[in-house]
Amino acid sequence: MTAPACKGIRPGLYAITDSALMPDSRLIRDVEAALTGGAVMVQYRDKNSPPSDRLSQARSLQAACRNAGALLIINDDPELALRVGAAGVHLGQGDRPLHEARQLLGDDAIVGITCHGDLELARTADQAGADYLAFGRFFVSGTKPTAPPADPAVLGRARQFGKPVTAIGGITLDNAAQMICAGADLLAVVGGLFGSDDTEQRAREFANLFSRHHPLFHLSSVRES
Ligand SMILES: Cc1ncc(COP(=O)(O)OP(=O)(O)O)c(N)n1
Ligand SMILES: Cc1ncsc1CCOP(=O)(O)O
Ligand SMILES: [Mg+2]
């Protein structure tokens, strides 16, 4: 993860919303709790709500993220990202092509790309100008059980691209350290975070794992001692 290419992306918890798990009444409150607990990035992922609800929710999330100094990413929808002034968009292999999102959002926007478990997809995304590379699912996922499985070894190999490496799919407190040690800079979590009764505390526990296991924090604490 090299500084100039990172556009403000820091290693840490990447909280992803889910309309089934988080009714409208809880969405903003739960995301604010995740941000208070230390989430560094939030993705608004909602495939069901009508466009007017999506717009108002994305606007509220953008305000919450700005207040917390965190980055808001919109799933699938570059136009919505543009309308609400989000930091960027996340695109899968079946979504709009990266170059269209880049044209719409500009060079400063973050575009993250799903690479499943495939280093060649990552190479293509890197060459096309992706800002982070997302791999997974690594474990059983209640949110997206049909996502193709990936081998954790891909996380370490993907570090060759010098871009933030994201892990997703069934991540919980029990397997998060394994993901960070395998090479993940960001842990993208839905159920393991928003399925908790205490989102703020759960987010804090994820954030603490980065302090203990991610090389950026680990190295600075070694230097300070
Ligand atoms: C961080 C992150 N990684 C992967 C995905 C999955 O994106 P995609 O393959 O487009 O699937 P959907 O999320 O759109 O169902 C993601 N959203 N975020
Ligand atoms: C969107 C997505 N893509 C691969 S797995 C997944 C869902 C992640 O959710 P959870 O953390 O609940 O497994
Ligand atoms: Mg998608």
Automatic annotation (TrEMBL):
Which residues of this UniProt protein bind Mg(2+)? Answer: 76, 95
Keyword annotations: Magnesium, Metal-binding, Thiamine biosynthesis, Transferase
Q: Which residues bind 2-[(2R,5Z)-2-carboxy-4-methylthiazol-5(2H)-ylidene]ethyl phosphate?
A: 141-143, 170
Catalytic activity reads: 2-[(2R,5Z)-2-carboxy-4-methylthiazol-5(2H)-ylidene]ethyl phosphate + 4-amino-2-methyl-5-(diphosphooxymethyl)pyrimidine + 2 H(+) = thiamine phosphate + CO2 + diphosphate; 4-methyl-5-(2-phosphooxyethyl)-thiazole + 4-amino-2-methyl-5-(diphosphooxymethyl)pyrimidine + H(+) = thiamine phosphate + diphosphate; 2-(2-carboxy-4-methylthiazol-5-yl)ethyl phosphate + 4-amino-2-methyl-5-(diphosphooxymethyl)pyrimidine + 2 H(+) = thiamine phosphate + CO2 + diphosphate
Q: Where is the Thiamine phosphate synthase/TenI domain?
A: 13-192
Q: Where does 4-amino-2-methyl-5-(diphosphooxymethyl)pyrimidine bind?
A: 43-47, 75, 114, 144
Pathway info: Cofactor biosynthesis; thiamine diphosphate biosynthesis; thiamine phosphate from 4-amino-2-methyl-5-diphosphomethylpyrimidine and 4-methyl-5-(2-phosphoethyl)-thiazole: step 1/1
**EC number, as in UniProt:** 2.5.1.3
**CC cofactor note:** Binds 1 Mg(2+) ion per subunit.
User: Which BP terms does GO give this entry?
Assistant: thiamine biosynthetic process; thiamine diphosphate biosynthetic process
Specify one Pfam family. Answer: TMP-TENI
| Record InterPro entries | Aldolase_TIM, ThiamineP_synth_sf, ThiamineP_synth_TenI, TMP_synthase
| Cofactor dependence | Mg(2+)
Q: Which GO terms describe its molecular function?
A: magnesium ion binding; thiamine-phosphate diphosphorylase activity
Cellular component GO terms, alphabetical: cytoplasm
Signal peptide, first to last residue: none
- The answer to whether UniProt assigns keyword Metal-binding to this entry is yes
- Described purpose of this protein according to its UniProt entry: Condenses 4-methyl-5-(beta-hydroxyethyl)thiazole monophosphate (THZ-P) and 2-methyl-4-amino-5-hydroxymethyl pyrimidine pyrophosphate (HMP-PP) to form thiamine monophosphate (TMP).
Q: Which family does it belong to?
A: Belongs to the thiamine-phosphate synthase family.
The protein's name in its UniProt record: Thiamine-phosphate synthase
Native organism is: Marinobacter profundi
